[in-house]
Amino acid sequence: MELQELIGIVKESGVAGAGGAGFPTYAKLDKRAEAIILNCAECEPLLKVHRQLLEKHAYEIMETFQFIGEVLEAKRRIIGVKEAYKATVNALKGNLPSFQELELKLLPEIYPVGDEVVLIYEALGFIIPPGGIPIEKGVAVFNVETVYNIYKALHFGKPVTSKYLTIAGEVTKPVTVHAPIGMEVREVLKAAGEITVKNPVFIMGGPMTGSLVTSYAVVTKTTNAILVLDGDHRLVKRMQSDISIDMKRAMSICCQCEMCTDLCPRNLLGHPISPHMFMRMATSGVTKDLSPFLDTFYCCSCGVCELYACPQDLSPRRLITQYKNGLRSKGLAPDKNVQSKEPLSAREYRRIPMDRLTARLGLAEYNKEAPLCETRLTPPQVKIMLSQHIGAKAVPLVKKGDQVEDGSLLAKAQEGKLSLPVHASITGEVTEAGQDYIIIQNSNERMQAL
Ligand code: SF4
Ligand code: SF4
Questions:
Q1: Measured by CB atoms within 10 angstroms of the end CB, which terminus of the chain is less buried, N or C?
Q2: Could you tell me the domains of the chain?
Q3: Model confidence over 312-369: pLDDT tens digits?
Q4: Which GO molecular function, any one, fits this protein according to its record (predicted)?
Q5: β-bridge partners, 193
Q6: Residues with Cβ within 8 Å of residue 61, at least 6 apart in sequence
Q7: Is there an atom of ligand 2 within 6 Å of 299 CB?
Q8: Do 196 and 220 meet the contact criterion of CB atoms below 8 Å apart?
Q9: Centroid of ligand 2 to alpha carbon of 298 (angstroms)
């Protein structure tokens, strides 16, 4: 297959990175990639999706990854998987003789090894420069579910209409489910038994980078998890704190101990981000040296500084993110010519073990099995967002009253922009179609209601 044909299939199928910011995958299919990496690092505590999918569908995913490597003519095709995922590693090893050109790279159980810059350093031994992107150094990274979605597009012509996600925390039956895109959190949670607290709060995504949502929030192409916690849980209180209070607390009690910088994964790789310097300058109001502010561009928002490192419970990440967004809104971009240092020799001793992180977050009691259930859930309706990823949102093609089939095109990608189409995730009637989302009522549910 020619590269342009693969790009066309992947784009038309609406494949975006199944996690993180959801970068449209067709834009990563680039022959500058001399090395491609399959990311099975499952970065955050409690999440299970990628390891489970790779264990269950090892052959299909390896075959597709191998195929992508052939089309891109990538010299190295590396599967990065945590050594701790024994069942997944065994499934991969069992299939490896069929894929001689694939390499297996066993990764340490540290956070955030799934971050692309950290992953590339662990797998290939070199550093992506500050502000740079992997393809500029000849690397492309794809996560497991993304490659599985490409497999379904190539073999069955199926667009992306569903998402695997782990439900964990205060539920009686933690589970990894297969949910149609657009399904509401409150409906998805029914698959995990009962909620075990009176005042539940929902985090969409992992505990380090996820965000608080209501039970009416909907699954998107990047939703990897729904965590249910008690409203009084420390992590919830941190997420609910007011950023203006965060700044006042920082002004009062940041003791400049530098723990945030000592443990910052990007600083340890030599990138010019020093959260303690940012905190010093931001809280003192001294602006003689602007570099601590401009260096906020090199923060990857991993959350180590505020959820693991800081002994004062301060929030460097939130404050840094606020500054970074402010700089972006003024049209500023990171300086790509800034020099990176060598990784710190102390890095080896300062990497963060996942079990320590899980305990520090107060989540150790929730670190249980969450078995993969592949039966697709059937919601009464779905609300499908037209912007689920980085880039321009899709343009609606349907109107209220239209009948749509599971997999039919609802909205097209914007021409000439980084954009993806959106497809129906259930069969039914369109009951609302706007510029931001489309609601579909499940036809089976309608029949029952009638
Ligand atoms: S770890 Fe906390 S107290 Fe120490 S310098 Fe960083 S923000 Fe300040
Ligand atoms: S969130 Fe904190 S620890 Fe993570 S990269 Fe940014 S400054 Fe460093």
A1: C
A2: 3-156 (3.40.50.11540), 161-233+362-379 (3.10.20.600), 241-360 (no CATH), 381-450 (2.40.50)
A3: 999 999 999 999 999 889 888 878 778 778 899 999 999 999 999 999 999 999 999 9
A4: metal ion binding
A5: none
A6: 38, 53, 54, 144, 147, 148, 151
A7: yes
A8: no
A9: 9
